[in-house]
Prior knowledge:
Elements lengths: L2 E5 H13 L6 E7 L2 E8 L14 H13 L3 E9 L8 H6 L6 E6 L7 E8 L2 E10 L5
Parallel strand pairs: 1-7, 4-5
Antiparallel strand pairs: 2-3, 2-4, 5-6, 6-7
Amino acid sequence: xxxxxLPRAIVNQLLHLAQKSPDxxxxxxxxxxxxxxxxxxxxxxxxxxxxxxxxxxxKAQIDAMRSMRSHGEELAAIYHSHPDSxxxxxxxxxxxxxxxxxxxxxxxxxxxxxxxxxGFHIRGPAIEEIAxxxxxxxxx
Length: 140
C-alpha cells in the first residue's frame, strides 16, 4: 500500500468541515506544489440528494483550479464526506471519478460518532487504498 502525508492543518480543516455539515456530503479540492500538499479548496455540493451524493459546483471548481494555477499549484486530491456510512468509495464515487492520478479522500462521520478519513486511488474499476499519515507543519 502506498502512503501520503497530509499536513495536519489540512486534515483538521477537512474534519472540521465534515463536522459542520453532518447531514450532507461536503466536497472540495486539495492542491499541491513541489513541496507537497498546500491548500484545501471547499466547493459547494450541488447534488440533488446531498445526504448520499456529491457533485462539485462547476463554477466553484473552475475558480479553485484557477486559484491553484495562479499560486503555482496543481490538483492533488478530491475529498468528500459520508455522513452516515464508512469512508469507502461507493459505486457512484467510482463511476463518477474523472481524475485517475488524483488522491481521493473520504471522511466518514461514522456510525459511532468517530471521525475517520481514508484515501484511495481510483483507476477505472480498480480501487487502491492509500495510507494517510500526518505531516507536522513546516515553514512555507
